[in-house]
Task: structure prediction
Amino acid sequence: MSREQELIENLDERLKEIKGICTFTLPASDLELIRSALLASQAEDQTAKYAGMIESFECDFNLAADPEAGQGLDELQLKIEQGDERIISDIELLQELSYGIRHGSIKIIRQTGGGGQD
Result:
């Protein structure tokens, strides 16, 4: 059990112990905020791991969608059939990302106040 998880459980136990003895209470929303902050500290930023793959596919699809570029999805399919290691690796990474999102082990979070488009 992580230190953060221990703190969450200890906080819940202590609040149950003092209920009725002490006038100190925390609203449920505050407890959720504390719990969320502690759990967020356990999160590991995976942006760099997936960013290159997403940018590569964005570029591939933009080229395929641009009639003036002269490249379509057929060229991408040909690279896959020829075993292009970069594309095969990116497909595997995309599958990993999709699985993680689907099963709740990976979340995509928009940072407020950061750079980029809002």
